[in-house]
Each structure stands twice: as structure tokens, then as C-alpha cells.
Amino acid sequence: MRNETLALIVAMIVGVCSASWAQRQVQDELGRTMSVPDKPLRVVCLAPSITDTVFALGAGDDVVGVSDYTKFPAEAQKRPSVGQVLNPSVEAVVALHPDLLIGVGDLNTEAAVLKIERLGIPVFLVVPRGISGIYRSIEDIGKILNREREARELVSSLRAREEAVRKRVAGKPAVRIFMPLSDDPVITIGKNAFLTELIAAAGGKSVTDDLAQDWPNISMEAIFVREPDYLLLIEGSPMTIQDLKKRPGWKNLVCVKQNRIFYIDDRMNYSSPAVFGALESLARQFHP
């Protein structure tokens, strides 16, 4: 009880301080209006992709906390974690005395965000859907961090990398890809999933890009009908080619029999600058 009281007192102090520093009204990517400090100095990133973006903007020194599973850049792993992306620890957040939190509207739960905002700490949410959404979120984060020039330069360099990849694969036959995210049940990527867009930009074609759901379940029979040329697997995932060769159904896929597998690291899952390294890697693999 004593610890809870102390935490509440600290939270109230932080809230008062945050309010006194707030000099700007901004609107996040969910359309929510809020006050944020004119010059945020203590930032907590509520998702790994946000951490990657903030560091890429040159604001890494202002980051006082990150979420679990943060990998990029390596320097960010030295920052204390406030817990899971879906449900960060309010106590851990308060203990860091932040003046701004940045999260992802599709990942950070509304309940968790409201708990933090009730303490007077602003939470700016972005929704980086697709490659164009990444550019927009970088620019929006740059605005609230007073790093608009850095954001413009970063977006310009990333656009150039994307364009270079698209030029490199232009006119080449698209490699037909099946990307399983889970093998039992089989879950894959649909037409509106970010990973489907990334595969296409790299010169491939997801054989499930006609499915309406973002993350649809699919039967083995449907996979056979689609006849993928290759599987695309995330490095380090529980699924391996050796394991799939032993499984009913999977072992009969031609691409599995013939070891036609591409691998990509988990940068593929980042809606941030890190994903452009994955895009370039895919293009080199699809079209050596």
C-alpha cells in the first residue's frame, strides 16, 4: 500500500510537470488532440518500431525507456524496459519520469494508454500501415520531437532505397512466395498485410494476396492449389525446413521437397526504418 501511495504521489508530480512543459497542441495519427512538451527530453517508446524510428531521427539520447523485445538499434537494448507492448507497466513508466510516450495505435491497448494519460503523461500514437504509412509516421514523430529536418532527410533516404529496389526488380518475373506465420493452424498473410506489400516491392508475389483478411487461416489443400515457388520463413522461428519435411502435407509441397526456401530476419516485422534492410535483402534473394 505504501508503494502504491508513493507511486501515485510521483505520478501527480510528473503530471503537474508535464502540464507545465506542454506548450503545443498536436494531433496524433488516431486523430486525438493532446498537449505535448515543446521540447520533449524524456521519451518512452512503447513499441520496438518506435524505438528504431526515434533513434534513426537522432533522438536516442532522449529515450529513457523502451518496450520488451527491442532489438534495433543495439544501443537501445541498454535502456530500461517498461514491459510488454500490449500492456506496459504503469509503475515502470512513472518511475522513469517521462514527459512524452510514443506508441502504436494498432499495438498498444486503449486501456493501457488511458491509464498513463490519466496521470498527465501525453501518449502520441502512430499507425504506420504500409510503406507509405512508415514515411508518414517518421514525419509525425519528427514533428513532436522537434526533428522535422531530420525526419525529412530520413524519409528522403528511405524513399531512395525503396526506389532503388523497385528499379532493380522492375520487369523481372515475380517470384511466387508463400509465407507461413504459423504451421498449426496454418496462418499466412492476406492482400492488405504489410508483409504482402513488402514482398511485392522486392519483386515477389505472395500467393495469398487475394485473401481479404490480413492474417487468414488457410488449408494445406489451398496451398497446394496455389503452387508457391518458394517458402519465406523468419529466421529463428519455430518453423524450419527440416521440421516441415517431416510433417504431413508440408512434406509433399514441391518447394519443401526441393529446399526452395528464402529466409529473412525479424526486421521484416518492423514498421520502421529497419524494414528497408529487410526489403533490400528480399530483393537480392528473389533476384540475385
List the main descriptive attributes of the protein structure presented here.
four-stranded parallel β-sheet; alpha/beta; 288 residues; 11 helices
- How many helix segments? 11
Helix content: 25-40%
Beta-strand content bin: 15-25%
What is the average of the pLDDT values? 91
Question: Strands of the largest sheet, in order across it?
Answer: 4-3-5-6
Low-confidence regions: 12-20
Beta strand count: 12
User: Which outline best applies?
Assistant: globular
Q: Alpha-carbon distance between the termini?
A: 62 Å
> Secondary-structure element sequence?
HEEEHEHEHEHHEEEHEHEHHEH
Structural class comes to alpha/beta
Radius of gyration: 21 Å
Largest sheet, if any? 4 strands, parallel
Layout of secondary structure:
Layout: H1 2-21, E1 22-27, E2 33-37, E3 43-45, H2 48-56, E4 63-65, H3 90-95, E5 100-104, H4 110-117, E6 123-126, H5 130-144, H6 148-169, E7 175-178, E8 182-183, E9 186-187, H7 194-201, E10 204-206, H8 220-226, E11 230-234, H9 241-244, H10 254-257, E12 261-264, H11 275-286
Parallel strand pairs: 3-4, 3-5, 5-6, 7-10, 7-11, 11-12
Antiparallel strand pairs: 1-2, 8-9
Description:
With 288 residues, the protein is an alpha/beta fold. Helices cover 40% and strands 16% of the residues. The strands form four sheets. Strands 4-3-5-6 form a four-stranded parallel sheet. A four-stranded parallel sheet has the order 10-7-11-12. Strand 8 and strand 9 form a beta hairpin. Helix 5 packs antiparallel against helix 6 and helix 6 packs parallel to helix 11. The longest helix has 22 residues. It is globular and about 60 Å long.
